[in-house]
Amino acid sequence: MISLRSPKEIELMRIAGKLAADVLVMLEPHVKSGVTTGELDALCQDYIENHQKAISACLGYHGYPKCVCISVNEEVCHGIPGHRVLHDGDIVNVDVTVIKDKYYGDTSKMFIVGGKTSPINQRLVNTTQEALYAALKVVRAGANLMDIGETIQRIADREGFSIVRDYCGHGISNVFHDEPTVLHYRNRNSVLLAAGMTFTIEPMINIGTYKCKVNKKNGWTVTTADKTASAQFEHTILVTQDGCEILTLRPEEEAVIPRILHNA
Ligand code: MF3
Ligand code: CO
Ligand code: CO
Prior knowledge:
Elements: H1 7-27, H2 37-51, E1 55-56, E2 69-72, E3 75-77, E4 91-100, E5 103-112, H3 119-136, H4 146-159, E6 162-163, E7 169-171, E8 178-182, E9 198-201, E10 204-206, E11 212-214, E12 222-224, E13 230-232, E14 235-239, E15 243-246, E16 260-262
Antiparallel strand pairs: 1-4, 2-4, 3-12, 4-5, 6-10, 7-8, 9-14, 10-13, 11-12, 14-15, 15-16
Helix pairs in contact: 1-2, 3-4
């Protein structure tokens, strides 16, 4: 059973979603050549705990040791912040999940260090964001969960990129990872969407193979099996009668996609 949010819960999800988005906004000017991922993580932790008076959902989650996930170039997700130094041209995903008043907001975006990367990396980043936005535009009560995977698959196929299969979007509320499991690739998992559902869409798209490897030493960091680059964007959304509300929208996105989508 996929649970539905009450009006009171929706209000709490809006607050948590905005806090998660605000962390990415705060971080933007700090993502520069020479900074370490550990330094960026420390900035996030200070902001979440001391400024937002919120909690990182990741810190201590199944033993995860840091506040956010930072995944660089060939890293797909769950990059553990540490001594890795960022360089101009790196493409970097920062994935933030916060808890405020028991409710979760989960979002990630790509940063391009120095503002410029290789043409193929740039196309990968653009395509992944386009795929997330296209998926958001098919969500409404009465749509099928599998429409999301179908939409993302068409865009990835058009560009000759592959879609990660080992990690999925998820229901989210006062639980981090809940039903439904949101597959980002073509599938036949028929689930009718209903107003009041809250879940993430978070496609990970690779230049080369879709296959991934988990770092054996730290047990977390996922890389592409062929070491080609990977990109990811994530939003937490609320399904509405005629579309969806993007609970983690950032101001920089408002020119490109509205917070409230009418898709019916
Ligand atoms: N934020 C990730 C997601 O999108 C989960 C990270 S769990 C962690 O679902 F433990 F690795 F932080
Ligand atoms: Co998520
Ligand atoms: Co996330």
